[in-house]
Specification:
61% of the residues lie in helices and 8% in strands. By secondary structure, the chain is mainly alpha-helical. It starts with a helix and ends with a helix.
Length: 263
């Protein structure tokens, strides 16, 4: 999916407090003093960053951290703007930045926990390691946990982004892999309405899905694959009639079960 890594890498960098200037050198401080002073400074800076970035327009209105369109869309973006599609492109940028803004507050406890677990050795590395040492420290301590925590938010937002970019291309044929996966109910309705509109406009849609309700609602033709073989090809209505079931889910299961018994 397009540019999924932007949120995790960008958030760690944006949340890591800067330490370009320290009043005292390491020789002027005991280990305990250096560690305690740095811990306090980092925690204060991290909480400030969370407060600034984890709100509406925290990323979108801040040129220093604002997330632009993926480089893969640069060429298409120029063409689309000349065709009057600038508003849709701006909505893509807003979607990406809103995803980052909604994810930031979720990182607060992880960032603070990493700071509180910092050792004297960690503190010395940060103080002597250059301008990116704090970012590296947070990346090492929080990247895995942040990935697990943010994945649902990122997946949904990048799914919307990918679909929007796809539909902006104005093709005659759309091939989609699980287009409704990871979307909230409101977004699912929006995407299904868009697919139905494309279908009514004469566009061809081919998509994979585990949601039989979506297939029943949108598709004229479906193909059921089981164990690497095609076990049914035809309309959803025909599958219902053939299996004698009132719902597509029951008809699908019956089709699969009968195929297993025939093997």
């Amino acid at each position: 999916m397009i540019r999924r890594q932007f949120t995790l890498s960008g958030l760690v960098a944006a949340l890591a407090p800067q330490h370009r200037c320290w009043a005292l050198g390491l020789r002027d401080l005991s280990d305990a003093e250096a560690s305690k002073g740095l811990t306090t400074a980092l925690e204060t800076g991290a909480l400030c960053a969370v407060g600034q970035l984890g709100r509406t327009d925290g990323f979108l209105a801040n040129p220093a951290v604002r997330i632009p369109l993926p480089a893969q869309l640069d060429g298409a973006a120029k063409l689309l703007r000349t065709l009057g599609q600038g508003k849709q492109l701006d909505e893509l940028v807003t979607t990406m930045n809103r995803a980052a803004e909604s994810a930031v507050p979720m990182a607060k406890d992880m960032i603070v926990g990493a700071i509180k677990s910092m050792t004297v050795s960690d503190a010395k590395k940060i103080l002597t390691g250059g301008e990116t040492s704090a970012t590296q420290f947070f990346a090492e301590k929080t990247r895995s946990a942040l990935t697990l925590k943010f994945l649902p938010v990122i997946t949904q937002s990048t799914q919307k982004l990918g679909l929007a970019a796809c539909f902006l291309s104005r093709k005659e044929l759309f091939v989609l892999d699980e287009p409704m996966s990871g979307l909230d109910p409101s977004a699912r309705v929006h995407v299904k309405n868009l697919l139905q509109r494309l279908k009514n406009d004469g566009k061809s849609l081919v998509f994979t899905s585990h949601s039989l309700a979506d297939i029943d609602e949108i598709c004229d033709h479906m193909v059921v694959l089981h164990c690497g073989s095609v076990v049914y090809s035809g309309s959803p209505g025909m599958l219902l009639e053939r299996q004698g079931e009132p719902s597509l889910e029951r008809a699908f299961l019956k089709c699969i079960e009968s195929n297993v018994h025939d093997r």
